Amino acid sequence: MCARYGFVPMRDRLLDLFGVDGAWPELPVIAPTNDVPAVFESDGSRILSFLRWGLVPRWSDDPKETGHINARSETVFERSVFREAARKRRCLLPATSFFEWGGEKSARQAYRFSLLDGGTFAFAGIWEEATKNRKDATCALLTVGPNELVSPIHDRMPVILRPDAYGVWLDGSLDSPDALGSVLTPYPASAMKRTTATREETLPPKAPPRLSQGSLFDL
């Protein structure tokens, strides 16, 4: 289960990669309930906004619920908590790394996974609208079985979308699990690297920044 990731953007590449300009934050370590950047598509244009990490279903009336940070790609179109979001509310969650832990419980080792060039990539994300009891729109990232680089450490990995799949994932006219599921595959191990990380390198800030969410209801 991916419970930490990072976003330290190479700003000169973001417009080419996502087709949207904006105030991109630097977030070396992101933890559940933090605000995260997200890219959406609306009327043919890409939009940058921010979501709270931890998808809370609309029927929840608990203002303290932290939500689901991950959704399994194999069942995301079937489970009631994710089904509507997967069909109607999809987004890209930009990142530059993610963390997993391996080894025995008494000696857990953190590992950082990133692209070979250290560049920005995007997780497949889904999101849910704010409700009367919650002022924040929320999100989850999708996971899939691991590639050869991740499998020695963990039995799941986030879905890293290939850039040519961004348009498919954001296409609001698509709601077929077959069409959308075709892009939810493990990223090639040959294009990634794994390095060890210290405990301190995996700790999020004690007071993470609140990022301006804006209105998502017209997307």
Question: What topology emerges from the helices and strands here?
Answer:
Blueprint: E1 5-7, H1 11-18, E2 27-30, E3 35-42, E4 45-53, E5 70-72, H2 83-88, E6 90-95, E7 97-102, E8 109-115, E9 121-128, E10 138-144, E11 157-158, E12 160-161, H3 166-170, H4 177-181, E13 192-197
Parallel strand pairs: 4-10, 5-10
Antiparallel strand pairs: 1-2, 1-7, 3-4, 6-9, 7-8, 8-13, 9-10, 9-12, 10-11
How would you characterize the overall build of this protein?
By secondary structure, the protein is mainly beta. It has one domain: hypothetical protein yedk fold (Alpha-Beta Complex). Helix content is 11%, strand content 32%. The protein has helices at 11-18, 83-88, 166-170, 177-181; strands at residues 5-7, 27-30, 35-42, 45-53, 70-72, 90-95, 97-102, 109-115, 121-128, 138-144, 157-158, 160-161, 192-197. The strands form 2 sheets. Strands 3, 4, 5, 6, 9, 10, 11 and 12 form an 8-stranded mixed sheet that branches. β3 and β4 form a beta hairpin. The chain is globular, with a radius of gyration of 16 Å. Mean pLDDT is 91; it is low at 215-219.
Helix content: 10-25%
Mean pLDDT: 91
Structural class: mainly beta
CATH class: Alpha Beta
Q: CATH superfamily, called what?
A: SOS response associated peptidase-like
Summary, kept brief:
This protein has 219 residues and is mostly beta strands. It has helices at 11-18, 83-88, 166-170, 177-181; strands spanning 5-7, 27-30, 35-42, 45-53, 70-72, 90-95, 97-102, 109-115, 121-128, 138-144, 157-158, 160-161, 192-197. The chain is globular, with a radius of gyration of 16 Å.
